[in-house]
Amino acid sequence: MATISKKNQTTQHENIPLVNGSTKPKANTKKATDTDAKKIFVLDTSVILYDHSAIQNFQEHDVAIPITVLEELDNFKKGNDIKNFEAREFIRFIDRLSAEHKLQEWLPLNGKTKGKFRVLMNNSSSLDAVNIFGDKNDHRILNSALQLQQEMTKHKVVLVTKDINLRLKARALNLVAEDYETGKIQDVAGLYTGNDTVEDVQANTINDLYEKGVTDVKKVFTEAPTDNHFYILKSFKNSVLAFYNAADKQLERVDKLNAFGVKPRNAEQAFALHALLNPQIKLVSIQGVAGTGKTLLALASAIEQRREYKQIYLARPVVPLSNKDIGYLPGDIKSKLNPYMEPLWDNLKYIQNQFAETSKEYQKIRDMVDLEKLVITPLAYIRGRSLSNIIFIVDEAQNLTPHEVKTIISRAGENTKIIFTGDIYQIDTPYLDSQSNGLSYLIDRAKNHPLYAHITLLKGERSELANLANELL
């Protein structure tokens, strides 16, 4: 009589009946309804750089941007980062929208169900934010919203910004301020984990998995579970690691595979390596705190599959140190980027040091780097390329926006596998959080797709000292 262990239940699945008639919990699908009067949303620059189509996402409500936002976007229009793309796309859209109109007038947005749009001038309100906080762009944006609030007394004016401090300042001036919610994951605590523990499985089912490697899914579930989902199946005496194969529609045994000298140290790592080495799964995400082995497993599995792909790319978003641009660092572009790429090199050296310096495996990794079979590069350099016949590992994916993740995946060509790794609770950019980052968005949206698999790593394996930091500090 199989039952899902409460310890490992996930709230993202639809009800999946087990053979004993019990079910897994079903996600809450209730949608909130907005019964408030018509509003005017004032967007700041951070929202536009996060999503250039943001002004289209406020239903029938009106949207405005301060002219200071246009000025700031002008500084972002050049460059190869996603934020530069977002700035350019928004500027082009506004140019088309205002081709025969003045931007200080309320212009209808596309679609009959949309509201109107206008640009706000930097007029001071009776409550002058510049006077209170000092003369800077954020405070000019506040003044524009405050002035609009005084003019449009019959409407609720709301400042929308991803800058937490700006929201606090707005509220201090009695101005309603909200985060940009589109694409946000509401229940991060219940985010899909990729695996469950199933108790009270029939002993003969577990024996089948050990002897034959596969078993009929109906021996455990009365309905098909989530595609590419992993399980720890337990009977009274034995247990086995299992995987629901989306292609074959059956449960198969998960063996603890070796990837170029790296062996899994726990069940979740075994699940991760199984997904990473599975040629049928083209998109993999691995989430977990520092020291759980996310990047190491991804890199080791890529090297293990080197003969199946022309190149291996390792990339990570460049988040400037102390919010400074990389231009302040000394040296050429390679020297400037080395501090950001060093963690990737550390993992590569760890894999290489599994072998003696005179071994073929040690030399193989050196040759792969020298011949650019394995390339470590900043993520910005990937944009615009067509990614065919490669394994593409994106580290620190929690520092990407949902649009950046979508852009990366959309570059995939034939015979390409993309791996995202990161920790959704360790955000290094001020305009993202655990709910709005691209990794959380991917995990929530891609689950139950036959080309996708996800695993959340829970146990730190770096060292006992590192575990102490994660658990106690």
UniProtKB/TrEMBL annotation:
The keyword Glycoprotein does not apply. Gene3D superfamilies: 5'-nuclease, P-loop containing nucleotide triphosphate hydrolases. Keywords: ATP-binding, Nucleotide-binding. GO terms for cellular component: cytosol. Residues 39-168 form the PIN domain. Residues 1-14 have a biased composition (Polar residues). Residues 1-31 are annotated as: Disordered. GO terms for molecular function: ATP binding. InterPro entries: P-loop_NTPase, PhoH, PhoH2-like, PIN-like_dom_sf, PIN_dom. It comes from the Bacteria. Belongs to the PhoH family. This is PhoH family protein. It comes from Pontibacter cellulosilyticus.
